[in-house]
Specification:
Four Helix Bundle (Hemerythrin (Met), subunit A); binds fe (ii) ion; elongated; mainly alpha; 5 helices
């Protein structure tokens, strides 16, 4: 996905929010992130949810978008997911394996029950943002552009 696949609403603040989210995804995909950097990104995503969704919903209300309630529900899904990713971050699932973890892992391996490592918060964030960019921004957001251009003064 690149900038050209983002829908263009013609409202600079909204388009700029979408580009910003794509940049956050690129950074998470390509750069090593410390635990502190991940927490900072998580805070930015919460801020994105507060600010961007408020902007978008205000515009959709102003142009009487018929799917507004459904659209707001989707924004709620993003908020819930970000909250649960925050819990995973606070639990420190990216911390390095300590002695106890190692003993438990080795014991499980000896018993023939190798543990499948859970995805790290960074990987979970990347997976969620990819899905959000494709399904919501390039899907649900793209769907309102035609209505907005006809009905938003
Ligand atoms: Fe959006
Ligand atoms: Fe949206």
């Amino acid at each position: 996905m690149n900038d050209n696949t983002l829908p263009l609403t013609g409202i600079e603040s909204i388009d700029s929010d979408h580009r910003g989210l794509l940049e956050t995804l690129r950074r998470l995909q390509t750069e090593h992130c410390s635990q502190d950097e991940l927490r900072h990104t998580w805070q930015q995503l919460r801020q994105y949810a507060d600010e961007h969704f408020a902007r978008e919903e205000q515009v959709l209300l102003a142009c009487a978008y018929p799917q507004l309630e459904y659209h707001k529900t989707m924004h709620g899904v993003f908020r819930d997911k970000i909250d649960s990713l925050g819990i995973a971050l606070l639990e420190g699932k990216d911390r390095p394996e300590n002695e106890t973890d190692r003993m438990i892992r080795e014991a499980k391996e000896e018993l023939g029950k190798p543990q499948v490592a859970p995805a790290s918060p960074r990987v979970m964030m990347v997976a969620f943002l990819v899905q959000w960019l494709f399904q919501h921004i390039n899907g649900h957001d793209r769907e309102y552009v035609g209505h907005l251009k006809k009905n938003y003064a």
